[in-house]
Amino acid sequence: AMLRLRLLTWDVKDTLLRLRQPVGDSYAAEARAHGVRVQPEALGRSFQEAYGAQSRRFPNYGQDQGLSSRQWWLDVVKQTFRLAGVREDGVLALIAENLYRDFCSAQNWEVLPGASETLRRCCQRGFHMGVVSNFDNRLENILRQCDLRHHFEFVLTSEEAGFAKPDGRIFKKALQRVGVSPEQAAHVGDDYTRDYRAARAVGMHSFLLRAGGHGEGPEVPPEHVLPTLSHLLARIEK
């Protein structure tokens, strides 16, 4: 039976947009511009460590502990370089400011194949459309720069909502924005826990983008799996 959906909500990172290059490469290039040489691979590893530690210590950009997301990110960048052996605080402050600014632009993000066309077709079908993303307040600008913002009625970030996926309250806020019930809505994302399972837990439909096929993660009914975004409308309409 065709799903009677009124609202589609979308994850962004690795669903609609992806980084043009690994984080370590971007960080190394910015450091080089300041005369600091660090291996991209080392920076990639230390970024994972710094980001993980910061996320555990200050969840959802530390807003409950009085941090701004900007300060949260500046600290992650500086700690990434410190872990990779760079100690000059003055140059680190500059590098961090520049990276915080540059990750807000289309020079670091690219639209995933099929994303623009799929969003356009979903809008044509008359669905309400919104973003639900564990992102900071730069997301509106990134979507605008990548020419995707106009597809959405709202952009709900975890920073704005005060809750991060898989917390169901962020999905409930999205449903309230449009005034639809969970069974009239579906979420599209690439993460089994934060996207697929979390949306289903509040009673929404959900589709899991699994570009790599069926190797990774728990079993998901095949009709809920999207090998590419272009499969979405066929799944909804069948």
TrEMBL record:
Pfam families xref list: Hydrolase (PF00702)
GO cellular component: nucleus
Gene3D superfamilies: HAD superfamily/HAD-like, Haloacid dehalogenase-like hydrolase
Listed transmembrane segments: none
CDD domains: HAD_dREG-2_like
Family annotation (NCBIfam families): DREG-2, HAD-SF-IA-v1, HAD-SF-IA-v3
PANTHER family: HALOACID DEHALOGENASE-LIKE HYDROLASE DOMAIN-CONTAINING PROTEIN 3, PTHR46191
Family: Belongs to the HAD-like hydrolase superfamily.
Protein name: Haloacid dehalogenase-like hydrolase domain-containing protein 3
Lineage: Eukaryota, Metazoa, Chordata, Craniata, Vertebrata
